Amino acid sequence: MIDTTLEPNPAATEPDPARGQDPTKAPGWVQKTRSKFAAPDATIAAADADPNEWLPWISRGSLLRKSDSKAAKGFYAPALPGSPTSTKQAEILNTTLIAAPTGASGVSQGRDVMSRTGVNSDPITGYNSTPKIVTSTGVIVLGDVGSAKSSLVKCNYVIRPLILKDRRAVIFDKKDQAGEGEYSELCRHYGHDPLRFTMDESSTRWNLVDPGLSSRNDDGGDNHLELLYTIPSLVRSGVIADEWERKTIRLAYRSLLKAFEGGRKPTLDDFVRRLGFIDVHEPSLVGMSGAAVERLHQAGLSIRWVFDDLLDSYGTVFDGETSKEVKLDGKITSFDISQLPDAGPCIPTVMGVANLWLLATARRERGWKTNVITEEAWYIMGTELAKQARSNQKLARGLGFSNIFVMHKGSDVPVGSPGMAVIQEAHTIHVYRQNRPEEAKWCQETFGFQRETAPIIENLDNGHHIFKVGAGNPETEVQHIRSEWEKKMTDTDTALSTEEGAR
Q1: Are 337 and 375 in contact (CB under 8 A)?
Q2: What is the CB neighbour count within 10 angstroms for residue 429?
Q3: Which of 61, 420, 466, 484 suits 93 as a labelling partner, its CA being 20 to 30 A distant?
Q4: At what angle do helices 290-318 and 223-235 cross, to 10 degrees?
Q5: Does pTM top 0.85 for this prediction?
Q6: What is residue 39's predicted lDDT score, i.e. its pLDDT?
C-alpha cells in the first residue's frame, strides 16, 4: 500500500555521486532548478512493504550531463541514453517498430494489426520500382479451408489490380460453387464467359499439339516438347519418360510438324499415330543397330498407349482442335476446371497447356501485365509440372507475369523438389491460419519468420494473415479490409452481385 501523504524531500538538492555530481562542490543552477520541479519522494507503509517488489519511482533514470556550462548552452540530453527495458514485448515502445510496414505504391493489401496503418503491395509494381522492392514476382498464399484466403486473392490480385493501366488477370478456377467455378460470376461481371472444361461434349477443348503452344524456356529448350515429356508422368502416377521414350516423342513431334507445315493444324490423334513409327533414314538414327531400333519402336508403343489412355478417358477435353473461344482478349480470363475429376492427369494437363498458351500469347501481345492465379496449386507443385513452372519463372518476369499460387499447406511439397524451389523463390508471402502446429512451423522455417510467429499462425482469426514482402524484410500481421461491394463480389458462399451500379 502506498502512503499518499507525501512530504517534500529535503535531500533533493544534495549532490548525487551516482549522477556525476561532485559532493565537494556547491550545487550548480541545473541541480537547483531541478530540485524545484522534482516530484516528492513516495513512502511505503512499513507494514505493507514488500522487499521483493520493484518500485519504478525509486529507480534511477539516465545519467544526466554534469557540466552546467554545456547544459546552459542547450545540451539537455542525457549523457548516455538509458534502456527503458530489456523485455522483448517492450519493442512496442519504440515507435520506429510500429511505423507503416510498407510504402504507398501498389494496391491495398489490408491494415497492419500493430500500427493500424495501411499495407500496400503489388509484385509487378515492386519489381519495376527503383530500387526493386522484389526481385521475384512470385506469390504464395497458404491457409486452411475457411480462413478467407480466397477472398484476399479475388480482391487484391483480381479486382483491385484491374483498375490499373494495362493490367489483366488469368485464373485457374478449381473450387466448385453451384456447378461452376467460384470466379465464374466475377468473370461475367467484367463481360467475359469462363472457359469451362467438363467431361461432356460441352467442354472447352485444348489441342495438346497446337503449334501455337511452341515457345522457348529460359534454358533455350522447347516448352511444347517439355510438356509432352511431362504428360506420361501425369498419366502413370509419377513414372517419368525415360531417354528412349523421350526420343520417340521428339521423333513423332518433328515428323508431325513437317507433315502439316502449311496445312491444317495437327491434332493429338495425328501425333499419337506417329508414336512408335521409326524412320531408319532419320539422320539421328544413322548407324543404330537393329536391336536399338526395335527398342526405340517398343518405347514409342509404350508412349502411344499413354496418350491413347488420355484420349479415351478425357477426349472431350483433348480430342480435336483448340476451341475458338480460347483467347486472351479481355481484362479477366477464367479456366473453369471445377467440374473435372480431382484424381488423374486431366487437371494438371490442362494447367500445363494453359501456361504454355499464356507464355506464347504474351510474346505476341506485349505491354500487358498479368496476374496468373492458380487455385489448388498442388496440381503443379506436387507434379513434374513444377519443373516447367520454375523454368518459366524468368520468362514470366520478362513478359510481365506474376504467378500467384494458392494452396492449403506446403509440407506436402517434397524438400529439394522443383515445387519447393518455386515456393522458396517467391518474394510475396501470405500465410493464413494453419491449425496444425507442424504446418505453422513449416511456414515459419520455410519463409524465415521469427520463431514466435509459428504459434501466432495457429491462432489467426479469419481474414488475418502473416504478410511478408521482399527478401530479408520482417513479417507483419495484416487484417484484410474490404468494401461492402468487394465483400459481395468475393463471397464464396453466396450469389454474387452484378448490378450496374457496382461497376
Answers
A1: no
A2: 23
A3: 466
A4: 80
A5: no
A6: 47
| Whole-number Å distance between alpha carbons of 386 and 48 | 69
Q: pLDDT for 177-195, tens place per residue?
A: 889 999 999 999 988 999 9
- What amino acid occupies position 54? W
Return the DSSP state at 84.
S
Residue position matching grid coordinates 541514453: 81
- Buried residues in 362-390 as b, exposed as e (16+ CB within 10 A): beeeeeebbbbbbbbbbbbbbbbbbbbbb
DSSP 116: -
Number of H helices, E strands in the chain: 17, 15
Peptide bond into 283 cis (omega under 30): no
C-alpha dist (Å) from residue 425 to 57, 208, 229: 52, 29, 25
Residue position matching grid coordinates 534511477: 60
Cα–Cα dist 431/256, whole Å = 46
Query: Which residues are within 8 A (CB) of 76 and not within 5 positions of it... i.e. 6 or more apart?
Result: 65
Encode pLDDT of 51-104 as tens digits. 555 444 455 555 555 667 776 666 655 555 454 555 555 555 554 445 566 767
Q: What is the domain partition of the chain in residue ranges?
A: 2-82
Q: What is the DSSP letter of 460?
A: P
DSSP secondary structure, 219-284, as one string: TS-BHHHHHHHHHHHHHTTT----HHHHHHHHHHHHHHHHHTTTSSPP-HHHHHHHTT---TTSGG
Write the pLDDT tens digit of every residue in 227-253: 999 999 999 988 999 999 999 999 999
